[in-house]
Write a structure and sequence with these properties.
10 strands; 4-stranded antiparallel β-sheet; 6-stranded mixed β-sheet
């Protein structure tokens, strides 16, 4: 069954992998336009099953290894932020470790997660920075999610996204990342560049698997 890319809406997609029954049979489609690999909606988990799976993750805010893991994004983003900047951790999970890390560094940070911090009122604010760590791969509708994140980011604000980005898709069938049934969207650097272009943003890749987007100031006319 054919699918349409949930990011750029292109129909130029091709199936690149079908997982085994043992792993829960799913199909994966690669977009020729934006280089996103996605899982069609017919394979998405029900919300209750998805939440149960998330509870298996180790998101303890006091776990030093987990904090070092999140530091791959935070350590490159923090020096670019003004003192007292107001941020949002989007997809904070059951243990909002990055929120705690940012607060410890003197920033004012809100948290949002559809299951564990579901107060949507925070999505009506505007932010100097937004962090999104190991969350974008769970987006069922990445076009809508990235559009929303762009809309609540202030001019000259930063959006930091951390997700595994392989150099190419040739090894996708053997990649451990596709075995998680809650992973629905897979990005390459080319995908992130497409997102940046579509939202009139700049993007850089300071370390592997981290993309930092900057929303231009209003005076640039964007």
């Amino acid at each position: 069954m054919k699918s349409t890319c949930p990011l750029c809406r292109s129909s130029d997609v091709q199936r690149i992998h079908t997982s085994s029954e043992k792993l829960g049979s799913r199909e994966f489609f690669l977009c020729g336009e934006c280089d996103l690999v996605h899982v069609p909606r017919r394979y998405h988990l029900a919300p209750e099953a998805e939440q149960t799976r998330y509870l298996l993750h180790n998101n303890d805010p006091s776990d030093l290894d987990y904090r070092r893991f999140l530091g791959r994004l935070w350590d490159v983003m923090r020096p670019a932020l003004a003192s007292g900047a107001h941020g949002l951790d989007f997809g904070c999970g059951p243990g909002p470790a990055l929120v705690r890390m940012a607060i410890e560094d003197g920033f004012d940070v809100d948290a949002y997660d559809p299951y564990f911090a579901p107060d949507k009122s925070v999505l009506k604010s505007r932010y100097d920075f937004i962090t999104c760590t190991e969350t974008a791969e769970h987006f069922a509708s990445p076009a809508d999610e990235f559009k929303m994140l762009h809309s609540i980011l202030k001019p000259n604000g930063l959006l930091g996204v951390m997700t595994s980005m392989p150099p190419d898709w040739s090894t996708f069938p053997a990649w451990h990342y596709n075995r998680d049934p809650t992973h629905l969207a897979y990005y390459a650097q080319r995908t992130m560049q497409w997102i940046a272009n579509s939202q009139n943003m700049e993007v850089s890749f300071p370390v592997p698997n981290v993309a930092i987007f900057r929303k231009p100031s209003r005076h640039l006319g964007l």
